[in-house]
Each structure stands twice: as C-alpha cells, then as structure tokens.
C-alpha cells in the first residue's frame, strides 16, 4: 500500500507546537515508508484566512525541514466539494435545516435541563416544520444524516475504537450562506488525493466516526486512522492559552534549533528518550506508532531549551559553518558552552576582543605573563604553561586557574582554556594578564 499523508492547516493564525507536531508525525511516518507528504491549505473560512498566515505556514514548515511532495488550497477545489455534496444529496444523506442559531441554542438548553445529550432533534425532517420554515423564506444550512449506528475502526495509536453515532448530532456540512465547513471538504480531498493514512490529534476521534460514514456514503475506500494524544503543559494544563508564545515563529525568534524542536516534538509522549538527533532522517527511521503512549504529551519549554543546548553541543562544524566564520577550531572550543546559536557572537568576543580583564591576583598574573611561551600554540600549551606558573608561584587548583580565567576572559566560567588560549594568541594574552583591555 502506497503511503500518502496530508497536513491541512488553516491560515487563520501562526503554526503552534501542536500543529507542528501533527505535521512532523505525518512527515516522519511518510518518509520512513518512502511515502508522500502533502500540504493542503484549509482556507475555506474566507473571513479568517489570510495570505500572511498562509505564507507563514510555508516558512515555518521549511524552517523545521518538513518539505512537502505536493500542495493545494481548498479554495481552489470548491467544484469537487459541490460534486460530493450533490452525490450525498442524491442518495438522501444530506438534508436542509432551517433553525436559527438562537433556536438551536434553546433546544440545547432544554435538553440540558432534561439531562439529555445535546443532539440535534432532526426537527427539519418533519414535513410540517420544513414547509413552515420554507414558507417564511428561511435559507437552510445542510446536515449529513448519520446512520445512528455504531462505527468502528482499528486506530494505529488507540487500537480498536467504536463510536455510536446515535450519540452525535448530524454534522453541518454547509452553512446557510453556502460556505463549506471542515468536514465535507476534508473527506472529499482525502478521497481525491488518495490519502492512505489520516494522522492527527485525538480531539478528532469523534469527527472520524462521522467522516467514516461520509466516506462510505460516497462509495470511497477509507484511509487508516491514527489519533495521538494532545500536548499539555508541564502540570497537565491545556496549552490553548499559551499558544501565542508557543508558535514556531516565537521559538525561532528565541533561538531554538529546528532539529531540537523536531526531536522534542517527535519524542515527548513516546517510549523513546528525548535526546538530540543530527537529522530528520534519524527521527524518521525511529518513528513507530506503537511507541506513542496514550497519556497526553507534556510540553515543557525548559526541557526544550535544555535539548536545544545539547543539540548544539553535538553538532559537527559542517552543520554550522555558515554561522561560525571563526572556523572549526573556534567551534570545537565553544560549542559545549552554548545554549543557543546566538551565544556564538558573545563567545567570539573572547577571542577577537575587546575583553576587559579582571585581575584577581596581580602577582600571579604578572608571573604568568612572563612565563608565556613563544608561539605557535596548540592545545598542549595551556597545560605546559600552567604547570610552569604553578612551579614558580606555588599556586594550584582554583587559586591557579580561576585568576587566569578572569584575566584572560573577564568571566567566571566559559570554554575550556586549553582550546581557547591558542585562539586568543600571545599578544592579547599578555595584554590581558597585565590588566589591559585587549
């Protein structure tokens, strides 16, 4: 079976980490099996969809490395949705409804008062009601008539699932203004694009029962379904109130590495450890629906930040060369001290200057300056030099190394000086040991 999956975001806001995880899991699954990943822009909500948000979707997916194998916009496919609508209408599975939103809300309130589920009562199917409301000149919205029987499927994450559509309202497919809502376009597109697997969050499980009935009513082959648990905050709280601060754009501006974001979103909520990866291909090879747990996945920004640092620490120079003009030796000297790529510029200053030294022990610093060997220097220079300084001054341990670090870098902590010293060079080292900004 050829694997074809899709990611269908709405261009009504920025992609947040929940959206990104859906896109990522689809992409990883497809790439592992040599399948295709399609991007489908769900822009049928003309009032809320914007070109700016659509452009941001493409930009964010490209940043994350999720290349697509084909793309389309739903606004270009309205004729296909109309054809599906008329097919359902001809088979008696779509019917017009005339109630106003206020009338529907009153119906729900009465049902709640009677402790009944808030299911549409199909009043518009009564000939007398239909004739009355049509006589009033009301424009209908259109609902799909569910079978009110049990729908079952084997979910690739949740296992066997059964939903009784008698517990659901007939879904509205078309508004009274003629605009298509989510459900019918999604099914029609999945059929037309030969989607083999629908991979999405578990908030769509109930929708799936209705969509399966629409697939069947249209005489189409159903895709397989995989519904994974949603993301929650560190304490199990919903992320909905924080999504603005958890957009991919925000994470990018904060200096998160796309590979760190991808590895984090791919591994949280699974049986795999959350560890750095060098490529998306590694994540694809490791992907397996069986690894996804049933509990919600906890998104903890501090964990992502820690993984971001570990990802940088593991990166070879070839992966960052464009960001590190100082060269490979500098990268190897400083990478283990990075938390974000933006830290590179500050650490580069330790080599290029200017650094204002902190002289904690003037006698030690003066002796150290006098004992600096001639260049060229390598990583063995630091050990030989500090051994000579210790022999002459009697300093050892922190009393030796701390004053030298403060003098050479002006910092309490930083990169290994055995790697940094050859990059600083003799002239700057002498000047800084003498208390001069250099």
Describe this structure in words.
- There is one protein chain.
- This protein has 438 residues and is α/β, with parallel strands linked by helices.
- The chain is built from 19 helices and 12 strands.
- Strand 1, helix 1 (17-32) and strand 2 form a beta-alpha-beta unit.
- Helix 3 crosses helix 6 (183-192).
Task: List the defining traits of the structure above.
single chain; 438 residues; alpha/beta; Arc Repressor Mutant, subunit A; three-stranded parallel beta sheet; three-stranded antiparallel beta sheet; 45% helix
What percent of residues adopt helix (DSSP H or I)?
Answer: 40-55%
Measured distance between first and last alpha carbons = 66 Å
Biggest sheet, strands in spatial order? Answer: 1-2-3
Number of helices: 19
User: What is the CATH T-level topology of the domain at 330-433?
Assistant: Arc Repressor Mutant, subunit A
The number of strands is 12
What's the story with the biggest beta sheet?
3 strands, parallel
Alpha-beta content class? alpha/beta
Radius of gyration: 31 Å
3D shape: elongated
Tell me what portion of residues adopts beta-strand conformation.
Answer: 5-15%
Task: Return residue spans where pLDDT drops below 50 for at least 5 consecutive residues.
Answer: none
What is the CATH class designation of the domain at 330-433? Answer: Mainly Alpha
Task: Write a short abstract of this structure.
It is built from 19 helices and twelve strands. The chain is of the alpha/beta class.
List the helices and strands and how they pair.
Layout: E1 4-7, H1 17-32, E2 36-41, H2 51-64, E3 70-73, H3 78-90, E4 94-97, H4 101-113, H5 127-135, E5 141-144, E6 150-155, E7 159-164, E8 172-174, H6 183-192, E9 197-201, H7 205-217, E10 224-228, E11 231-232, H8 248-253, H9 258-267, H10 280-286, E12 297-298, H11 301-313, H12 317-320, H13 328-334, H14 344-352, H15 362-371, H16 381-393, H17 398-409, H18 417-424, H19 426-433
Parallel strand pairs: 1-2, 2-3, 9-10, 11-12
Antiparallel strand pairs: 4-5, 5-8, 6-7
Helix pairs in contact: 1-10, 3-6, 6-7, 9-11, 13-18, 15-16, 15-19, 17-19
